[in-house]
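Structure first, sequence second, as always.
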């Protein structure tokens, strides 16, 4: 499980200019702990990654055409590179993603 300090650090690096350079359509990201669960008998710690977009033209149907891949953002950057950079092992942390348009409506969710 991520400590409060680790979760704060992950939120900060995720909201840095580095991510905005890669994905300019991302306004902000909020990573929060949502509870524990089990997968095939193994305890996991669940986190929700809420991505808020600044482009209201992005929809579920066209997000890949607009060069926004939420799963690559989640698995490559947030739960991959950023955790590694911070020295945090992936461990039993499980991440879910939700993407919101600028007006707050849900664009997509895997939770």
């Amino acid at each position: 499980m991520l400590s409060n300090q680790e979760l704060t650090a992950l939120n900060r690096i995720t909201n840095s200019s580095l991510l905005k350079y890669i994905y300019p359509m991302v306004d902000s990201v909020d990573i929060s702990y949502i509870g524990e669960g089990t997968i095939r008998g193994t305890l996991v710690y669940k986190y929700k990654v809420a991505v808020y977009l600044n482009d209201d033209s992005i929809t579920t149907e066209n997000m890949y055409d607009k060069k926004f891949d939420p799963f690559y953002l989640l698995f490559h950057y947030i739960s991959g590179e950023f955790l590694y950079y911070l020295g945090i092992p992936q461990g039993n942390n499980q991440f879910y993603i939700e993407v919101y348009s600028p007006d707050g409506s849900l664009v997509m969710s895997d939770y």
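Margin note: The first helix runs from residue 4 to 14.
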